[in-house]
Amino acid sequence: MLSKEILFQEPAPGCRMVRFRGDVVRFRLQAAKFPPGRACVRTNLGQGRTIRREIIRHVELNEAPLARDWFDIPMQLAGPGVFEVRIPLNEVGHFEAKCLYLPDNQDEPLWPDGPNTTINVEPADTVCGNSIYNAFVRQFGPQKNLSRSDLSAADPCLRQLDADGYTVIPPSGTFRDLIAELDFILSHLGCRFLQLLPIHPTPTTYARMGRFGSPYAALSFTAVDPALAVFDPAATPLEQFIELVDAVHAREGKVIIDIAINHTGWAASLHETHPQWLARNADGEIENPGAWGVVWEDLTRLDYRHKGLWRYMADVFL
Predict the structure, then answer these.
(1) Please, are residues 272 and 210 in contact by the beta-carbon 8 Å criterion?
(2) Nearest in space to 97 (alpha carbons), one of 29, 21, 3, 33
(3) Which of 100, 95, 82, 93 shows the shortest CA–CA distance to 40?
(4) Distance (Å, rounded) from C-alpha 75 to C-alpha 82?
(5) Which pTM was predicted?
(6) φ/ψ bin of 268: left (φ > 0), alpha (ψ from -120 to 50), beta (otherwise)
(7) Whole-number pLDDT of residue 4
(8) What is the pairing mode between strands 37-43 and 71-74?
(9) Is CB count within 10 Å lower at the N or C end of the chain?
(10) In which band, very low, low, confident or very high, does the pLDDT at 171 lie, cut at 50, 70 and 90?
């Protein structure tokens, strides 16, 4: 019996690679101690459309995925018992690959030890110049340089209202306040990506965490918090968000939106429309997510065993 341990693959099985569209990846397989045969790379590189089609048909039609995206690329003999192939990376996505060796007159391929090699292919224009500016829209505008103690000192009534249990939320920064800073962020600092903390509506009274409420306690994944916009009869809050996106694009920047889809805030719209999507414990209580030993009691965990929730989130992303 031949031992597959003398099959050596480069890049090694199990390694994770980040490459960019337009790169070329070389696979090399050494099988010098094996009888004559042929070698291939089994992969799903470049098959993103097929991968997505199987995922969608699995959800929409309950079809079992059949791994139609996998195929074999023949390797060329580069020396005694050494095979190579160079594969152009022409599609962005998450892919896997592994070499195999098939000796002549055998039906079963032999594999190097270890899991598949992972290849994450990123867009070509992200190969460099990827500085990210993380912006919390609330913190721009007049409140930009005020600390929590400054807020209390600004109004002598604030401490008493806090003590009496009132909800006191100072004016928020707005999308237009952030637009006014873009020349500094994108030109002077040289950042190319503007990453926004969540811009969804959040609880302002019931189950509010902190003075402003956690930005991750989304009440709707498709709505914009009106507090982040100015009252303008000519532009809705969503249209003012689009103003920000257009202003970033006009400066050749890109926008990343943070959307925490593991959970919602308390009294979110999904609580009314799809309460069955909330994760509950054996006693029927809604589960709160958490991390590092902390439970986030202002959040409600979503149960992704429901395929309807998959479809809903796909629409959110689109």
Answers:
(1) no
(2) 29
(3) 100
(4) 9
(5) 0.81
(6) beta
(7) 44
(8) antiparallel
(9) N
(10) confident
